[in-house]
Specification:
281 residues; alpha/beta; Spore Coat Polysaccharide Biosynthesis Protein SpsA, Chain A; two-stranded antiparallel sheet; 12 helices; globular
Length: 281
């Protein structure tokens, strides 16, 4: 059987300088295709992409937001493939990514595989997570609030994880070496998915601007698909802000609306709700 092509898809909005450095890395990796999905940038992103003849520019005249912009890959690349979504402000730390992507996505029952995202030298707190609920969101907030003292003060890190016992196994622990595990969702900044699977799930929800993985992750769960976190593909996130709004507050507002519309208030209040995790081992 012929190996599936692996294509890189980089959503971009006014990230010209960072984008150029990432593309220089990607063109050395052996991807079958590389696409820059541009969300109506006003900087010189298009001129930067033009310097790379093997990179395809997919530009839009209207700003769709992060999720709508990611969906542009479905119109740009029609054949079946493995899509590797990468934020424009990450740097690859792993060689031979396409070969690893094919191995990680060999099982068609896998919906998504999220790779390792590092910030400040350690795993990002939001690399993956459980289904959203009030409890899970609050415990994540507690862990994030104390994130700066977790590494230098192991006692407090352990105490916080114990206090949030019920949810701690579903969120990353940056103080522990990351290992492959089943997850409910993995963040989009370093994410593998088959094109046919993304199409089947209806793509990303264009009404969601932050953590737009949540709606397709819910649909994947309902269809019996499973998702994984795997540190075999690692990137460093530079955290470049070009949209200039309070991301955490925007996320909380979207989560309230999302749960009210899609999961109902019972799923929002209780940790399990009617989305009890169901992972393949």
């Amino acid at each position: 059987m012929k190996a599936l092509p692996v294509v890189a898809a980089i959503p971009n909005y006014n990230m010209a300088e960072s984008l150029g450095e990432l593309l220089a890395q990607l063109t050395q990796q052996g991807y079958d295709a590389i696409y820059v999905l541009d969300d109506a940038s006003t900087d010189n992103s298009r001129q930067i992409v033009a310097q790379f003849p093997n990179v395809t520019w997919v530009g839009g005249t209207h700003n769709l937001g992060a999720s709508g912009n990611r969906n542009r890959i479905l119109g740009a690349h029609k054949p079946e493939c493995i899509i590797h979504f990468l934020d424009a402000d990450v740097r690859l730390e792993t060689p031979a990514v396409p070969a690893k992507a094919r191995r990680l996505m060999a099982d068609p029952q896998i919906a998504f595989v999220g790779g390792l995202i590092k910030e400040n030298g350690r795993q990002m707190l939001w690399n993956y997570g459980p289904n959203v609920s009030l409890y899970n969101l609050l415990t994540a907030g507690v862990q994030a609030g104390f994130g700066n003292i977790q590494a230098p003060k192991p006692f407090w890190r352990h105490a916080i994880r114990q206090i949030t016992m019920r949810a701690r196994s579903e969120w990353p622990d940056p103080a522990v070496s990351p290992k492959r595990r089943a997850v409910y969702w993995a963040v989009e900044g370093n994410l593998l998915v088959r094109r046919s699977t993304l199409q089947k799930l209806g793509g990303f929800d264009k009404t969601i601007a932050e953590y737009d993985i949540l709606p397709p992750a819910q649909r994947a769960y309902q269809l019996g698909l499973v998702s994984y976190f795997d540190p075999a593909i690692a990137v460093t996130h530079l955290k470049i802000d070009v949209r200039h709004y309070h991301r955490n507050w925007a996320l909380y507002k979207e989560l309230f609306r999302l749960i009210k519309q899609r999961g109902g208030w019972r799923a929002w209040i209780f940790p399990e709700g009617h989305f009890k995790p169901r992972y393949n081992k």
